[in-house]
Structures are given as C-alpha cells and as structure tokens.
UniProtKB/TrEMBL annotation:
Its main location: cytoplasm. Belongs to the Fur family. Homodimer. It comes from Pelagibacter ubique (strain HTCC1002). This is Ferric uptake regulation protein. Keywords: Cytoplasm, DNA-binding, Iron, Metal-binding, Repressor, Transcription, Transcription regulation, Zinc. The lineage of its organism: Bacteria, Pseudomonadati, Pseudomonadota, Alphaproteobacteria, Candidatus Pelagibacterales.
Amino acid sequence: MNNINIYKEKLRESGLRPTRQRLKICEVLFSPEKTFHFTINDLTKIIEEKLSEKISLATVYNTIHAFKKKGYLKEISINSDKSYFDTNVTEHHHFFDEDTNELIDCSNEEIDSVNIKRNITGKKIKSVEVLIKVATDNQTQK
C-alpha cells in the first residue's frame, strides 16, 4: 500500500474526508523518518515552507485533533495555553526547554520508575509520563 492510500485510510478512520489539504498534512506528519514535536502554528508554517501550500489554521487544527482522538498523535500540555503534539505515540517522557520552547524526548530508561503513593478511587492508572521543565540557571551565568 502506498503512502497516499495509507494517509487516506488514516483520515477516514479519523472521521475525515481525504481532501488535498488533509493529505498534505499527512505527508508532513507521517512521512518523516523521525518522529517530531510541533504546535499547530509550527505545523502550519512547516506545511507552507516545505510544500508551498497554504492551508487554513482551522483545517490543520481539526485534522490534528481528529488524529489525536484516534490515537495517531499524542498531545503534551506544557501549560494552560501551550500544547505540543508528538508523532511518537508510544509511552515516553519529555524535557521541555523553557529557553528555546523545545520539547525533547526522554526515554523510559533515562528515568527510574515513578512511585505513585495515591490513586483516585474507581480509577486505574493507564500510564505515567513525566514532563521535566528545564531552563538556563542564571546563577551560573554570572
């Protein structure tokens, strides 16, 4: 099965019609050899630069959220108004560099197991993913 058919299948499984614009979004998201992190605004810029294609922010937003809901993308919330998406949907941890706004993968082997001492009644822990925020230590800069 070629990539276009794979992309069409992902779109249909996500409840979306495979339009030319959505296929372009798939091309950027799912064809790179490496997984990557992005904001919706980042992705819009990447599509415009790499593919010389102008796609509305609403189309990108709706497509990304449909893919997230289906499990093709993972959302990492940095704070109440900043989210990144990850094309690597496996369970793993992240560093967030507050100086550069870069999200960096951190494998499970790089963090000892997390000891959770409390659970929510009637709920089961599905996964534990750690977000480690880092920034330049201004005291070492003197």
